[in-house]
């Protein structure tokens, strides 16, 4: 089973408290690290989570320009420089934030490594990252300022080679990669051995995770997120305060759960708590609509398929 792990470093809204820092998560997908948002304490939280390694962090995705999602980025980059980073770092952000962030980084930080900026389109979903094993898509949010969530999806793994068959047909090692990728094999006498006789499907479904940072209840994203394994969705307000949620362009716990139900996810993780609420009440509100809901906390590690453990924070 390949690794697909979500570490919640911070899950509060707006204001850091002694209980919660603001939004920051790190995904470990096949030992590649991806940071989602970067709160002011992000680098300290990253260090505390000692299974995370700065050297493996090459991609940072910022959902939008509100400070509780991005104030830690210049500090983190500055520290990376002091730690001697030389590898390029990829930053993904909306077009309104990018020039401001460039200016702050240029003014405050001496960065000896290359920063590659990727501009997000906040109006429609786009594929923004791809490698052999996975893709990342942006998810347009509805938040009053340009804002994107992010959808991480593993690709279907290639079939497993049946070595007893490839040995029996005396197939050269140089041909095995092509066969693993789906090619048939032609024997020297012209006989075609179909791929289905040389490989078998791997019994492991691709895993997926959607991070929905700040948004009004947003049915526009349902189709893109259909059947995602795990959904993280903000729950800044209780449904009793839905008027305030609409005014501030956030969601209620009930709406997050309605989203989870509509897209047929397996697991909802709620977060982005306002300090005015007891999280247990928000969790109960969400679970009344979508029972398989858990409440994020700082230091929570969620491994797909469904396993939770806690870091020493
Ligand atoms: Zn916001």
Describe the protein in words:
The protein has 313 residues and is α/β, with parallel strands linked by helices. It has 2 domains: 4-157 and 204-310, Metallo-beta-lactamase, Chain A (4-Layer Sandwich), CATH 3.60.15.10; 160-200, no CATH class. 25% of the residues lie in helices and 27% in strands. It has helices at 42-48, 67-70, 73-82, 97-108, 163-168, 176-180, 222-225, 242-248, 253-263, 279-289, and strands spanning 4-10, 24-29, 32-36, 57-61, 89-93, 115-119, 127-130, 134-140, 148-154, 160-161, 185-186, 192-193, 199-200, 208-212, 230-234, 267-271, 293-295, 300-303, 307-310. The strands form 4 sheets. Strands 6-5-4-3-2-1-18-19 form an 8-stranded mixed β-sheet. A hairpin with a 2-residue loop joins strand 2 (24-29) and strand 3. Helix 9 (253-263) runs parallel beside helix 10. The mean pLDDT is 92. Zinc ion is lined by residues 64, 66, 143, 214.
Looking at this protein, list some descriptive labels.
single chain; 313 residues; alpha/beta; Metallo-beta-lactamase, Chain A; 2 domains; 8-stranded mixed beta sheet; 7-stranded mixed beta sheet; binds zinc ion
Q: What is the strand and helix layout of this fold?
A:
Elements: E1 4-10, E2 24-29, E3 32-36, H1 42-48, E4 57-61, H2 67-70, H3 73-82, E5 89-93, H4 97-108, E6 115-119, E7 127-130, E8 134-140, E9 148-154, E10 160-161, H5 163-168, H6 176-180, E11 185-186, E12 192-193, E13 199-200, E14 208-212, H7 222-225, E15 230-234, H8 242-248, H9 253-263, E16 267-271, H10 279-289, E17 293-295, E18 300-303, E19 307-310
Parallel strand pairs: 3-4, 4-5, 5-6, 14-15, 15-16, 16-17
Antiparallel strand pairs: 1-2, 1-18, 2-3, 7-8, 8-9, 9-14, 10-13, 11-12, 18-19
């Amino acid at each position: 089973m390949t690794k697909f792990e979500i570490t919640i470093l911070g899950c509060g809204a707006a204001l850091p408290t002694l209980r919660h820092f603001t939004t920051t998560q790190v995904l470990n997908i096949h030992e590649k690290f991806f940071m989602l948002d970067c709160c002011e304490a992000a680098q300290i939280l990253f260090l505390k989570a000692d299974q995370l390694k700065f050297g493996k962090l090459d991609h940072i995705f910022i959902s939008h320009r509100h400070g509780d999602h991005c104030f830690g980025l210049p500090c983190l980059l500055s520290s990376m420089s002091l730690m001697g980073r030389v590898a390029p770092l990829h930053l993904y952000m909306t077009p309104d934030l990018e020039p401001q962030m460039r200016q702050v980084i240029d003014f405050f930080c001496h960065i000896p490594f290359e920063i590659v900026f990727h501009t997000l389109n906040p109006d429609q979903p786009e594929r923004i990252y791809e490698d052999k094993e996975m893709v990342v898509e942006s998810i347009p949010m509805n938040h009053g300022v340009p804002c994107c969530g992010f959808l991480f999806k593993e690709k279907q793994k290639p079939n497993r080679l049946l070595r007893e068959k490839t040995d029996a047909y005396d197939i050269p090692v140089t041909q095995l990669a092509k066969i693993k990728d789906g090619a048939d094999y032609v024997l020297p006498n012209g006989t075609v051995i179909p791929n289905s006789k040389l490989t078998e499907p791997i019994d492991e479904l691709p895993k997926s995770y959607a991070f929905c940072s700040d948004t009004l209840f947003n049915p526009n994203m349902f189709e893109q997120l259909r059947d995602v394994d795990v959904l993280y969705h903000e729950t800044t307000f209780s449904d009793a305060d839905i008027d305030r949620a609409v005014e501030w362009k956030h969601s209620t716990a009930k709406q997050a759960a309605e989203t989870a139900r509509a897209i047929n996810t397996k697991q909802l993780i709620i977060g982005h708590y306002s300090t005015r609420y007891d999280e247990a009440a928000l969790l109960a509100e969400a679970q009344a609509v979508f029972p398989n809901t858990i409440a994020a906390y700082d230091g929570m590690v969620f491994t797909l398929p469904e396993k939770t453990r806690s870091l020493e924070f």
